[in-house]
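From the methods appendix. Each design record in this collection lists the discretized structure first, followed by the designed amino acid sequence. Records were kept in a plain field format so they could be parsed without special tools. The example shown here is representative of the layout used throughout.

RECORD:
C-ALPHA CELLS (327 positions):
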C-alpha cells in the first residue's frame, strides 16, 4: 500500500491550493466514501488527503425562497432542519432513506454529491475490465452478472449506477452547486454537474481538479405543492435503491399545474425525467396520466441480462409516487 500524506486545511484557500498542486490529491470531508475507496477497496490512490472537516462550511440558511446548504453540513443535520421538513419533504425523506443514523451523522452533503458508484466491478481491483477505473479496458458489468446497475444514460462502455438518494430530489428541484478554486468560483446547475459515461466513463462530473464544493442552493417548493420520495429496495434499511423516484406536484381542480420528477436506481447520473414532466403538466391527475408519464420517463433503456426487470419496476415506482403525492 502506498503512503498517503494527510494535511488538515486551515481555510478554504489553502485547502484548494493543497489539492491543486498535486494531481492525485483529494479533499477529505466526512470520509465515508474516500476511506472506502482508498483504504478498503484500494481502487483510488490519492497521494495526499486534505482534511476540510474543520472549515466553516456547515449549516443551512434561508434567503427568501431558497436554502443555502454548506457542503460540510451532515445528512442528519439537513434532515433535521425545520424548513426542509416543512417545505421540502422529498429531500428529508430521501436523506432518511439514504443511510443509517450513524452514517448520516458523518456523511456530508458535499460528499454525498460526489460519492462514487457502488458497481462491484469498479470496486474490485482484481477485475481488469472497468472503463471507469482504467479507460479502454472494457466493462465487466455488461458481460457478467449485473443487477444494481443503470438502464438510463448507460451504454456498452459503462452501466455503473449513481447511487445517491439525496441527488434524486435535488435534480428535480433544480439545485445549484457552488464551487471554489484558486481563480474564484462558479455555480453549476446540478442537472449539468454530472456526465453520462459516453466513451469516457472515468469522467463523472464537471469538477476541475482542485475545485471545492462549498454550498448547494435549493429553491423551496411553492406553497400548495405536495412532494415525496419513494425508494424500492431489497430490504427496508441500509440498502441501495433498485429504483426510486422523487416527485413534486401541484394540482388545481384535478389538473396537474406543475410537476417535477427525479429518478434514482436507474441512471448513470441522478436522472431528471423531463419527458415525464411534459406529459404531466396540463393533464388530469389520474392513473392513465401517471402511466403515460412513466412510459415517457423510461424510454429507450439500455438493459443487459439482470437489469431488464428495472424497466417495469421503475415505471411502477413512478406511478406509485405520483399517486401518493396527488391523493
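DESIGN:
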Amino acid at each position: 500500500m502506498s503512503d498517503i500524506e494527510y494535511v488538515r486545511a486551515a481555510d478554504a484557500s489553502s485547502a484548494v491550493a493543497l489539492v491543486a498542486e498535486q494531481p492525485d490529491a483529494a479533499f477529505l470531508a466526512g470520509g465515508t466514501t474516500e476511506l472506502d475507496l482508498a483504504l478498503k477497496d484500494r481502487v483510488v490512490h490519492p497521494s495526499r488527503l486534505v482534511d476540510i472537516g474543520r472549515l466553516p462550511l456547515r449549516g443551512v440558511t434561508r434567503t427568501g425562497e431558497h436554502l443555502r446548504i454548506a457542503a460540510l453540513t451532515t445528512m442528519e443535520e439537513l434532515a433535521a432542519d425545520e424548513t426542509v421538513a416543512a417545505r421540502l419533504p422529498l429531500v428529508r425523506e430521501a436523506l432518511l432513506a439514504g443511510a443509517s443514523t450513524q452514517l448520516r451523522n458523518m456523511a456530508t452533503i458535499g460528499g454525498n454529491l460526489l460519492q462514487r458508484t457502488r458497481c462491484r466491478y469498479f470496486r474490485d481491483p482484481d477485475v481488469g475490465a472497468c472503463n471507469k477505473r482504467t479507460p479502454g479496458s472494457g466493462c465487466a458489468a455488461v458481460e457478467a452478472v449485473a443487477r444494481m446497475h443503470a438502464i438510463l444514460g448507460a451504454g456498452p462502455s459503462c452501466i455503473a449506477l449513481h447511487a445517491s438518494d439525496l441527488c434524486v430530489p435535488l435534480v428535480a428541484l433544480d439545485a445549484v452547486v457552488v464551487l471554489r478554486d484558486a481563480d474564484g468560483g462558479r455555480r453549476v446547475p446540478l442537472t449539468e454537474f454530472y456526465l453520462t459515461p459516453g466513451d469516457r466513463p472515468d469522467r463523472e462530473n464537471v469538477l476541475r481538479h482542485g475545485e471545492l464544493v462549498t454550498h448547494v442552493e435549493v429553491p423551496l417548493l411553492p406553497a400548495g405543492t405536495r412532494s415525496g420520495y419513494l425508494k424500492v429496495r431489497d430490504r427496508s434499511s441500509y440498502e441501495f435503491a433498485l429504483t426510486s423516484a422523487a416527485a413534486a406536484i401541484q394540482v388545481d381542480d384535478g389538473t396537474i399545474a406543475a410537476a417535477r420528477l427525479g429518478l434514482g436506481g436507474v441512471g448513470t447520473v441522478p436522472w431528471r425525467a423531463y419527458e415525464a414532466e411534459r406529459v404531466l403538466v396540463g393533464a388530469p391527475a389520474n392513473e392513465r396520466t401517471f402511466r403515460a408519464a412513466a412510459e415517457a420517463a423510461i424510454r429507450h433503456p439500455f438493459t443487459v441480462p439482470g437489469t431488464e426487470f428495472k424497466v417495469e419496476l421503475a415505471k411502477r415506482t413512478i406511478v406509485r409516487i405520483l399517486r401518493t403525492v396527488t391523493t
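APPENDIX NOTE: The CA atoms of residues 157 and 198 lie 7 Å apart.
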